[in-house]
Amino acid sequence: MADCKHIHRAIYSGSFDPVTLGHLDVIQRGRRMFDDVIVAIGRNISKRELFTLQRRREMVEQLIHEMKNGDPNAGNVRVETYQGLTVDFARSVDANIILRGIRNISDLAYECQLAMTNRQVANIETVFVVTDQAFSYTSSSLIRQIAALGGDLDSLNAIVPPVVIDALKEMKSARGFEYLIEDHVE
Fold first, then answer.
1. Which of 32, 47, 65, 169 is catalytic?
2. Higher-confidence position of 153 and 104
3. For the whole model, what pTM was predicted?
4. Among candidate residues 138, 82, 94, the one with its CA nearest the CA of residue 6
5. Is 119 tagged catalytic?
6. Is 15 a catalytic residue?
7. What angle do CA 150, 152, 163 make, to 5 degrees?
8. Does the annotation count 91 as an active-site position?
9. Could you tell me which of 92, 53, 99 has the C-alpha nearest to residue 77?
10. Does residue 171 form part of some domain?
11. Structural domain count of the chain
12. Is residue 103 part of a domain?
């Protein structure tokens, strides 16, 4: 009998626009559970982007590199970008699991619906990781809103890594965030 090891490869997909400490919490936990974790950065067509896909990838790669330096034996993590359906990307990288973070009960209903659909349509299982309670109400949308409405960017240090705060400050000084605010004309 041949010694055949089955690789448990998970993708952790999202827009990561911007990446938060909650996202990093899920990645840290996932890399201890799976042989491979691919952080799959995609586009959410229903939201205006804050950072380009390439800039998000650069920030996540930097943070993953820092994470690995602190714990090099905790698993293999890489970052990729994709377009289209998450299940199609999962198939293209031979992932058999979609990793999802659950912040609170509001996430659970939505994520369960997606998980059941992904299992039915693509035969891909979803594994949920409950984030640390410190991140239970952190979202990239909230961070974009704080930035767009002129909030104190330094106050975000409890929910986003320093590289994100620096990038937000650079963006604010270069062009501002006005494009994130939708015009409401009656």
1. 47
2. 153
3. 0.88
4. 94
5. no
6. no
7. 105
8. no
9. 99
10. no
11. 1
12. yes
Q: Is residue 156 part of a domain?
A: no
pLDDT grade, residue 125 (50/70/90)? Answer: very high
Asked whether 82 and 111 are in contact (CB, 8 A), the reply is no
From 15, 23, 29, 31, the catalytic residue: 23
Q: What span, in angstroms and rounded, lies between the C-alpha atoms of 175 and 45?
A: 22
Residue 23 CB contacts under 8 Å (≥ 6 apart), including other chains = 12, 14, 16, 101
65 catalytic? Reply is no
Distance of CA 93 to the CA centre of its chain: 17
User: Cα separation of 81 and 54, whole Å?
Assistant: 8
Distance of alpha carbon 19 from the chain centroid:
6
Answer whether residue 70 is part of any domain: yes
Q: Which of 57, 100, 103, 144 is catalytic?
A: 103
pLDDT in tens, 84-98: 999 999 999 999 999
Q: What is the mean pLDDT of the chain?
A: 88
Catalytic residue among 15, 29, 56, 140: 140
Residue 92's CATH number: 3.40.50.620
102, 108 contact by CB (below 8 A): yes
pLDDT for 11: 98
Three-state secondary structure call for residue 132: coil
CA distance 134 to 11: 23
Domain hosting 25: range is 9-136
